[in-house]
Amino acid sequence: MNTVIIGAAKGLGLCLTEQLLNKGFHVAAGTISQTSGLLALKEKYGDSLLIFEADVTNEKQIEEGAKKCSEFLGKIDAACIVAGVLLEGDRTNLLHECDITELKKTLEINVAGPVTAVKYLFPYLKDGANVFLVTSEGIGISNCGTWVPCYALSKTAATKACGILNQSVQNVNFYAVHPGRMNTDMGRTTAQIEPEESAAGFCRLLSGETPVSRDCWYIDYKGNKMNY
Ligand SMILES: NC(=O)c1ccc[n+]([C@@H]2O[C@H](COP(=O)([O-])OP(=O)(O)OC[C@H]3O[C@@H](n4cnc5c(N)ncnc54)[C@H](OP(=O)(O)O)[C@@H]3O)[C@@H](O)[C@H]2O)c1
Questions:
Q1: CATH topology of domain 2-220
Q2: Which residue is closest in CA terms to ligand 1's atom 44?
Q3: Cα 194 from Cα 188, distance rounded (Å)
Q4: In the prediction, which pLDDT does 214 show?
Q5: Stretch 167-191: mean pLDDT, rounded?
Q6: Burial environment of residue 119 by CB neighbours within 10 A (0 to 12, 13 to 18, 19 or more)
Q7: A GO BP term, please (predicted)?
């Protein structure tokens, strides 16, 4: 299978890249940073892995990155947009107190970022391809908490983007996926699972081992329906 991961530097993205390579898939891994973890995968898996520059806030770079993916992979079977941020002030501020610069940055990376990736990957996706946007839990409109408000706003919007995308096109399926509360730099304080467990679930989603249907497009990493 030909797969694309964007946000592969560390955490879930890095684990997923490794597990897909381990399954024998070809992976184009987009990243801001050439981390030691990614370079070690290149060393081990060689020609099965393309590492390309992909800052989701840099439209030109994403456009060029998408072309590199298609040159490396041909048509793409599945893509997963993992890139995301939870900025420090958002862990303590209420929304009415938030740092507006942090709010804008969060929306730029977590909402405009995946939409930019989808826009430029779209021409290179196979008919019937599956695209997974890593969003979160707690995105409901009526069931509002106050914790990490900028992040929650952004993940609600990114989840809705999948619904809109599914209404917009028939030949590609979009899924918003809650990855679980993972023990990563982002999730360490609330972790319930290791990123390897989540990545294994994503691997089964990307490979089709866990069947998914576009009628149920907001799911968790095991493929279970999430409520919104
Ligand atoms: N951890 C959790 O409990 C949890 C729960 C729900 C949802 N999620 C979501 O799961 C995804 C993965 O999170 P994680 O826990 O693995 O977090 P993480 O370890 O902090 O990793 C986040 C990844 O996003 C990349 N990234 C950040 N800004 C980017 C940009 N502008 N362009 C491209 N890549 C960018 C980071 O690269 P650099 O390090 O190079 O910046 C890093 O590889 C995120 O979308 C997150 O919101 C996580």
A1: Rossmann fold (3.40.50)
A2: 84
A3: 10
A4: 94
A5: 97
A6: middle
A7: siderophore biosynthetic process
Domain ranges of the chain: 2-220
What was the pLDDT predicted at 138?
A: 85
Residue 61 to residues 84, 98, 168, 212, 221, Cα–Cα distance (Å): 17, 30, 25, 31, 28
Q: Nearest-CA neighbor of 137 among 215, 226, 216?
A: 226
Substitution candidate for ligand 1 out of 184, 192, 193, 205 with most atoms within 8 A of CB: 184
Gap between the Cα atoms of 168 and 159, Å rounded: 15
Residue 128 is encoded by which pair of tokens? 């019937």
Q: How far is CA 47 from the centre of its chain?
A: 23
User: Amino acid identity of 86?
Assistant: L
CA distance 35 to 155: 26
Residue 71 scores a pLDDT above 90: yes
**Within 6 Å (CB) of ligand 1, which residues are found?**
7, 9-13, 32-33, 54-57, 82-85, 109, 113, 134, 136, 179, 181-182, 184-187, 195
- CA 207 to each of CA 11, 130, 171: distance values in angstroms, whole numbers, following the listed order: 20, 10, 18
For 138-178, write each residue's pLDDT tens digit.
Answer: 888 887 899 999 999 999 999 999 999 999 999 999 999 99
Ligand 1 centroid from CA 82, angstroms: 6
